[in-house]
From TrEMBL:
Organism for this UniProt entry: Agrilutibacter niabensis
Keywords: Lyase, Metal-binding, Zinc
Residue span(s) of domain CENP-V/GFA: 5-121
Keyword flag Lyase: yes
Alphabetical list of PANTHER family matching this protein: CENP-V_GFA DOMAIN-CONTAINING PROTEIN-RELATED, GFA DOMAIN-CONTAINING PROTEIN
InterPro entries: CENP-V/GFA, Mss4-like_sf
Family: Belongs to the Gfa family.
Record protein name field: CENP-V/GFA domain-containing protein
Amino acid sequence: MSDLHSGTCFCGAVEVQVTGAPEAMGYCHCASCRSWSAGPVNAFTLWKPENVKVPRGAEHIGHFRKTDMSDRQFCTQCGGHLMTNHPPLGLIDVYAATIPSIDFKPGVHVNYAETVLPMKDGLPKLKDFPSEFGGSGEAIPE
């Protein structure tokens, strides 16, 4: 896997680059991620902030903060979703679809208790979040 990946919003006005390897990859099933992504599940890649850059179009990035946990970012030109900064975790979720060249290898499902799309893939299914991120860390069956 190359250690530099680039992607853009829907219209191409904003470019996002990530370098190195993500800290984690997986799926989130919470109602907020489902609503924000307009899908039954959201594929995430988590990165340290120093590994995420916006080389073009930063002036077109809008923000929406439903909670202090998540600063969701989108293109103000096309509405395309880009990433979510999670300040309490010290990580940025660059949506897997935003960086199409990444070799997406999910390792976990989070907030699986809220799923509307059961997925039988053998990956760990956490009721909410890992304990190190303030969740219960409780695994639930597929």
